[in-house]
Design brief:
By secondary structure, the chain is α/β, with parallel strands linked by helices. The chain folds into two domains: about 90 residues; about 325 residues, TIM Barrel (Alpha-Beta Barrel), CATH 3.20.20. The chain is about 40% helix and about 10% strand. It has 20 helices and 15 strands. Strands 4-13-12-11-10-7-6-5 form an eight-stranded parallel beta sheet. β2 and β3 form a beta hairpin. It is globular.
Length: about 550
């Protein structure tokens, strides 16, 4: 049942002024009939605005209006004039935002299941350096009706998971509001796709509705830690064997801030956060930049094997942003030496999102997603392990074209964080770290998070996933293919300059199966492979 909250916040100042003005003017008119003709128009104006503001508080379609009654209508007015006046009053598509306005608008349309077609052809400059396109076939296939899925789980996995090729990327409760987590999980359950918990642990809001979970374990081991911050296998097993958890994922690094830890100050560790993350009240909640449970590639493989065993045979893997190439190749050598292989690897690009990170980390640290995915794909091909390990891709993926392009470079499936945030109503205000999110997506303020209406937003999460896979099916059929796993680099081209175009095949050359083991001449791998050692992440020095 909807509860009307009193406008006690500065966000409701316009509504408060309108209501007070209406009451004062009505009082004046009642006590002095001589001024009725003078105050009748102000009463109608302020009274009308008051009714509008109360309606804004109670309506459920627009979270911004629920948090900013009356005043937020200016945003919608500007959106109405944007197509005609963009060149005069608005910045271009390259406005420095994580996603262009066109991409955000596309997600909103698909989440609301409204027409996402456009007239007058492409709005891209197809002769601009960097423009990319997918090739179509003169013999297109009938559009597939299936919801594209893959099976994740190698020979050592006894409980493989049939996953959608498009899933919700890691976002923790704490970074997201309770209502945002609820809506994402309900949407995932309705749509038959997976919801990554992020490293903040499994919260009650993840569990309320039973959507498939990928449990991410970071260096803080939240939800499976001892008091000193070390890993607790018993606590892990108790959670990992839950039927709702479909896969377990070890987070090595995050794309937006690889090699950077985090601290939630003791003052911000609420009783709820303390209970969910397994940290003490009055103590700093620390995510170290490194793991305490292992320190070498060999130990890392042993730990992943233990995660699989403790989870009851579920798919176990890890997520990372590629940094030093020899470090990932050292992990590959550890796989060969131990005989322990992860069931999956999620490659996060340095363009990935975060609630807050140093500017230098976000802009200049780590390998971009495309290069990272292709590097990992080729490395696994080079050691003869690609068939048993699935690869996920994350990093500014929001459209079907993004998914198809990542899969052409080696990914088996894709994860999206900001795309699904847009489907919840995120307007990319860049206030995630302030706890003043205007749409209730990234806040712990109960009044702000109230703006996010769970049933409505959950439906939009499902819609966005469904519409994006429908668009992917259209692309795949147009290319003459049956499944996105058939996409190869040859299906894409990249404009290097105004007069030169190269296929992805030339931009991202492939290794032969087993080439790293037999000896490679590929300069991307030859030096780093020689430097890699299974017993240490440090490079070997000749």
């Amino acid at each position: 049942m909807e509860t009307l909250l009193l406008p006690i916040s500065p966000r409701f100042i316009v509504l408060t002024i309108c209501c007070v003005a209406t009451l004062l003017l009505l009082g004046i008119a009642i006590t002095d009939h001589r001024v009725i003709n003078v105050v009748v128009i102000p009463i109608l104006v302020f009274g009308g605005l008051s009714v509008l503001g109360i309606h804004d508080l109670l309506q459920k379609d627009h979270a911004v209006l629920r948090n900013y009654p009356i005043s937020a209508h200016m945003r919608f007015l500007l959106e109405e004039i944007r197509p005609e006046m963009r060149q005069y009053f608005f910045e271009s598509e390259k406005d420095g935002m994580p996603f262009s306005r066109d991409t955000r608008a596309l997600v909103y349309q698909r989440a609301k299941m409204v027409l996402d077609k456009r007239p007058f052809g492409t709005q891209k400059n197809v002769y601009e350096e960097g423009y990319e396109w997918m090739h179509h076939s003169v013999a297109p296939k009938p559009q597939a009706e299936e919801h594209f899925r893959i099976t994740i789980g190698g020979p050592d996995c006894t409980k493989p998971y049939s996953a959608s090729v498009f899933n919700i990327s890691a976002m923790s409760f704490g970074a997201l509001s309770p209502n945002a987590v609820r809506a994402l999980n309900i949407g995932a359950k309705k749509g038959g796709f997976a919801h990554d918990t992020g490293e903040g642990g499994i919260s009650p809001y993840h569990q309320e509705n039973g959507g498939d979970l990928i449990w991410e374990i970071g260096s803080g081991y939240f939800g499976c830690r001892n008091h000193d911050g070390s890993f607790n296998p018993q606590h892990f097993a108790a959670r990992a064997t839950d039927d709702q958890v479909k896969m377990v994922e070890l987070k090595i690094s995050q794309g937006a801030k690889p090699g950077h830890g985090g601290v939630l100050p003791a003052a911000k560790v609420s009783e709820e956060i303390s209970r969910i993350r397994g940290v003490g009240m009055g103590e700093d909640c620390i995510s170290p930049a490194y793991h305490k449970a292992f320190s070498t590639p060999l130990e890392m493989m042993e730990f992943i094997g233990e995660m699989r065993r403790l989870s009851g045979g579920k798919p176990a893997g890890f997520k990372l942003c590629i940094g030093h190439p020899w470090e990932f190749l050292a992990i590959c050598k550890a796989m060969l030496q131990t005989g322990i292989y992860p069931d999956f690897i999620v490659v996060d690009g340095n363009e990935g999102g975060t609630g807050a990170a140093p500017l230098e980390f976000m802009d200049h640290l780590g390998m971009p997603m495309r290069e990272g995915v292709n590097f990992v794909h080729n490395a696994l091909v080079g050691i003869g392990a690609r068939d048993r390990i699935k690869i996920g891709a994350a990093g500014k993926i929001a459209t079907a074209f993004d998914i198809a392009r990542a899969m052409a470079l080696g990914a088996d499936w894709c994860n999206s964080a900001r795309g699904f945030m847009f489907s919840l109503g995120c307007i990319q205000s860049l206030s995630c770290h302030t706890d003043r999110c205007p749409t209730g997506v990234t806040t712990q303020d109960p009044i702000r998070s109230r703006a996010l209406v769970v049933p409505l937003k959950a439906e939009r999460v499902t819609n966005y996933h469904k519409a994006t896979l429908h668009a992917l099916a259209e692309l795949i059929a147009a290319a003459g293919l049956d499944h996105p796993q058939q996409i190869r680099p040859i299906h894409f081209s990249h404009r290097v300059s105004g007069a030169e175009v190269l296929s992805f095949t030339h931009l991202y050359p492939s290794l032969r199966p087993g080439e790293l083991l037999s000896g490679t001449s590929d300069l991307r791998f030859r030096g780093p492979w020689d430097m890699a050692r299974a017993d240490t992440f440090a490079p070997a020095v000749a």
